[in-house]
Each structure stands twice: as structure tokens, then as C-alpha cells.
Automatic annotation (TrEMBL):
It catalyses: D-fructose + ATP = D-fructose 6-phosphate + ADP + H(+); a D-hexose + ATP = a D-hexose 6-phosphate + ADP + H(+). It is an enzyme of class 2 (transferase). Residues 218-462 form the Hexokinase C-terminal domain. PANTHER family: HEXOKINASE, HEXOKINASE TYPE 1-RELATED. Pathway: Carbohydrate degradation; glycolysis; D-glyceraldehyde 3-phosphate and glycerone phosphate from D-glucose: step 1/4; Carbohydrate metabolism; hexose metabolism. This is Phosphotransferase. Pfam families: Hexokinase_1, Hexokinase_2. Keywords: ATP-binding, Glycolysis, Kinase, Nucleotide-binding, Transferase.
Length: 482
């Protein structure tokens, strides 16, 4: 019998499972419909009127050659951790050395006061420099790439006006403002003489870091706490930059911020669980696509299904048990779903253990089957939807064959995510079945190089080089580039 086989489940439970399958399954036709709309929305985001997807120009205007060199600092403010790196791009082509420290981003800072966030970040940077270099005053020659992975308007590479917080952050007084002076003020207060060279997004960093070692890399994606992608557009296809009169063939990396795809609810088959997540989030109506895919939400979607199946009189799972632990919002993260999908035991006893230890619930045999199927449905839907974004960029750019660099906890750790995404891409783009399983797909999604470390350093290097070459487009503080 297959793992978690449902053949012995009671009739009512089978009916509920079938209903969940209908809610969460996205067939090929729907994938194609979503992708089609996605292609239009990418173009709309680049237009003067704009659309849901921000399509932010990043002022990253070239690909790395592999010959970039020098010492850089990289600061990464992701959704979960804060990381400080010193990156050395060595003389050897496409090689680098990295020293790094990770700091936990305290949960309360994510919804706290802006000053405390900047002070915490500045403290971590100062601590890193003191540990590795002793004297902070000698550091002013190290250019800094700051990976700030939220939607930001960049009229210049050394500014970032936060459009809105995503990934559960909700810090007052930052949206609509340039975060660079706030960050620099905190550094100045501590006497840390670092100057910011480039503010970047993790997806752009991922694209550039991966392109450093692989010339076939055309798209950078993050499937982690959040979900997003970047690619390189030509300025002639960016009407909202037309007033700058850049030569039409000039390359410009675009941070899509595709998490906002279909905020208006035209094509995504949202379930009542997705709608509930959105309603109770700090930014209802935002990040519709991301809320169906990203690691921050997968466990929560699952939790909501479980609570619903408990109250549903037909399913009535965990009858008579205390489900108070399960009632706590965001108490299950995506690693909980990963663990369920990784249970290879026929009786799903690892899943049973997990429920007993983490939730104090003992599911029966049939309920375990439903749990397993729910995890599969949520994980599969996320992977298949994410393929729509990759397919849309590839169609827009006419890429028939390329590499896509992907990073993030969901991509790297969630079981079958890669295979399910690749299968969906095959369906959307109508590739014939492989004759040899070892053969590469025309568009292959691969594990990326470290975008917010090496990528941030590379982008700082490319920016300095560009200024040296006299291309001052998108530079706000030229004095910092001397
Ligand atoms: C969210 C952010 C975006 C980031 C992504 C992955 O979607 O808005 O900037 O790239 O998460 O971290």
C-alpha cells in the first residue's frame, strides 16, 4: 500500500479529501491561463500607468563578467535572519571568499519601532567589523551592498523608498520613505564609517551571483519566507523610464515583486483559506500570489484547513481532542509540512509523532491520510504556481532555453518542490516528455549562488565600475563612489 493510502478512510472523510483536492489542484489549462495573464501583467508593471506587479528598476545595468575583484561588505536583511558578510572577489575568474555572521532578527522588531530596527542592524554590522577587523575607523574603504528584500522604488541605486512592508513586517514610519538615510544615521551615531554603495533586492542579488558563475543564468528567484524574481530587461521595453532617454538596448535588472501578482483577484484560484490568511494579515489585499506560495504562509494554510476539518461536521477530525495548540495562528511553519511530506513510513507514524509532540493531538489512521494529502496539495500548488511566474518571464523575454537561479528555504528544503515546479513548467510550455531522464530541461531551475552575500558584493563592484566608466545614471551620491 502507498504511504498514507486513503483506501480505508471513512466515506465522509474521503468526501472532504476530494473537496480539498478540487480546491487546491491547478490543472494544466489553469496554469496556462495564469501564465498568460502574468505575461500581460509584467508588461503592465513596466508601463507608465503601472499595475499590481511593481516591476522595480534596480539600476543594476550589466551582468558580471566573472573578472570582478575586491573586498566588499554585504548586509542582508531578509525575512528571518540578519547576515553580515565580508566578500572577497578573487583574481581567479568567478571565485570568491566569504566570512559571515548570522544574527537572529528578533520577532518583536518586525512589528516594532523603526529606530530600533536600524539600531539593531547597525549594532550587528559594528559587532561584525570589530570582531573581524578590530578598528572600525579603517573600514571606510569597504563598499557596502545592502540587501533589503522588500519592494522599494529606486530612482537611484543608493536609495530605496519602501513601497510597502511584506512578509509580515509592519513597522510604522518607514513606508513611503527612503530607508538609506535612516540606516546611515544609525551607523553614524555609532561612528561606523561605512558608506552604502548599492541597495539591492535578494532576487537581483541571486540573479547576479548566479550569472557570475553561469552565463546561462537569466532569472533569479527566491522561494523562501517570501516569493519573488528578477530578470534583465532592456530600457527600450520600460516605458516608465522613457523620460530618462536611456539608449533602448541598455540592460536594466528588474525586481518584479511578483508576490503582488493578481492582487485584484482575476485568475488565481484562491480558496477560503487563502482569503482568511489575507484578511488577517497586516496588509490585506497585498501579495496575493506570495500568500499562496511562500514559506511564511504554507504552514498557516495547512493549519487553517486542519481547524476547519475539525469543525466541519462531516469530517470532524480530532473529535474529542483538545486542539488549543493548533488554534494558534502561524504556529506551524513550512518545515512542519516538509516533515509530513518526508514521512516515508507506510503507517505515517512519523507524522503521528509530530502531531503528538508539537500539537498534543493524536490523529487516527484515516486522519493521518488526510493530513498527508493536505500537505501534498498545499506543497504541490505552491510549486506549480511558482512555475507560472518563471514561464511568464521566459515567454516575455523569448527565452527558449536558459537557467534560472533559485534560492530560499522552500526551494532548498521543501520535498519535491523542484520536481513539481519542473513538471508544471513542462506542462505550461508544452515540452515533450524527456527521452532520457538525465537530459536537462530547456529551462532549468537550479540552486543559485548566494545572492545577498556574493550578489550584493558583485552589484557594489558593478556599480563602482560603471561610475568609473562615466555612466552616472541612477547614482544619487557620487561622492560616495570615489
Ligand atoms: C517578498 C519581498 C521581496 C523579496 C521576496 C523574497 O516578496 O517583497 O522583495 O524578494 O519576499 O525574499
Amino acid at each position: 500500500m502507498a504511504v498514507g493510502s486513503l483506501s480505508d478512510a471513512p466515506k465522509d472523510l474521503l468526501k472532504e479529501i476530494k473537496h480539498l483536492e478540487e480546491l487546491f489542484t491547478i490543472d494544466t489549462a489553469k496554469l496556462k491561463e495564469i501564465t498568460h495573464h502574468f505575461v500581460d501583467e509584467l508588461a503592465k508593471g513596466l508601463s507608465v500607468e503601472g499595475g499590481s506587479i511593481p516591476m522595480n528598476p534596480t539600476w543594476v545595468m550589466s551582468r558580471p563578467t566573472g573578472h570582478e575583484t575586491g573586498n566588499y561588505l554585504a548586509l542582508d536583511m531578509g525575512g528571518t535572519n540578519l547576515r553580515v558578510c565580508q566578500v572577497t572577489l578573487t583574481e581567479q575568474k568567478s571565485e570568491f571568499d566569504i566570512i559571515q555572521s548570522k544574527y537572529r532578527l528578533p520577532e518583536e522588531l518586525k512589528t516594532g519601532v523603526a529606530e530600533e530596527l536600524w539600531e539593531y542592524i547597525a549594532d550587528c554590522l559594528q559587532q561584525f567589523i570589530e570582531t573581524h577587523h578590530g578598528d572600525v575607523t579603517k573600514m571606510d574603504k569597504f563598499p557596502l551592498g545592502f540587501t533589503f528584500s522588500y519592494p522599494a522604488t529606486q530612482n537611484y541605486i543608493d536609495e530605496g523608498i519602501l513601497q510597502r512592508w511584506t512578509k509580515g513586517f509592519d513597522i510604522a514610519g518607514v513606508e513611503g520613505r527612503n530607508v538609506v538615510p535612516m540606516f546611515e544615521a544609525a551607523l553614524k551615531q555609532r561612528g561606523v564609517p561605512i558608506k552604502l554603495t548599492a541597495l539591492i533586492n535578494d532576487t537581483t542579488g541571486t540573479l547576479i551571483a548566479s550569472a557570475y558563475t553561469d552565463p546561462k543564468m537569466m532569472i533569479g528567484c527566491i522561494f523562501g519566507t517570501g516569493c519573488n524574481a528578477a530578470y534583465i530587461e532592456d530600457c527600450g521595453s520600460i516605458p516608465k523610464l522613457a523620460h530618462l532617454n536611456l539608449p533602448p538596448e541598455t540592460p536594466m535588472a528588474i525586481n518584479c515583486e511578483w508576490g503582488a501578482f493578481d492582487n485584484e483577484g482575476k485568475v488565481l484560484p484562491r480558496t477560503p483559506y487563502d482569503i482568511a490568511i489575507d484578511k488577517d494579515s497586516p496588509r490585506p489585499g497585498q501579495q496575493a500570489f506570495e500568500k499562496m506560495i511562500a514559506g511564511l504562509y504554507l504552514g498557516e494554510i495547512f493549519r487553517l484547513v486542519m481547524v476547519d476539518m475539525h469543525h466541519n461536521p462531516e469530517a470532524h477530525i480530532f473529535a474529542g481532542q483538545d486542539i488549543s495548540k493548533l488554534r494558534k495562528p502561524y504556529s506551524l511553519d513550512s518545515s512542519f509540512l516538509s516533515a509530513i511530506e518526508e514521512d516515508t513510513l507506510e503507517d505515517l507514524s512519523e507524522t503521528l509523532d509530530l502531531f503528538e509532540t508539537k500539537l498534543n493531538i493524536s490523529p487516527n489512521r484515516a486522519e493521518l491520510g488526510l493530513i498527508r494529502r493536505t500537505a501534498e496539495l498545499i506543497g504541490t500548488r505552491a510549486a506549480r504556481l511558482s512555475a507560472c511566474g518563471v514561464a511568464a518571464i521566459s515567454i516575455k523575454k523569448g527565452y527558449k532555453s536558459c537557467h534560472v537561479g533559485a534560492d530560499g528555504s522552500v526551494f532548498n528544503k521543501y520535498p519535491h518542490f523542484k520536481a513539481r515546479g519542473a513538471q508544471a513548467l513542462r506542462e505550461i510550455l508544452d515540452w515533450p516528455e524527456k527521452t532520457n531522464p538525465k537530459e536537462e530541461d530547456p529551462i532549468e531551475i537550479l540552486a543559485a549562488e548566494d545572492g545577498s552575500g556574493v550578489g550584493a558584493a558583485l552589484i557594489a563592484a558593478l556599480t563602482l565600475q560603471r561610475v568609473k566608466d562615466g555612466n552616472m545614471h541612477g547614482i544619487l551620491h557620487p561622492e560616495n563612489f570615489k
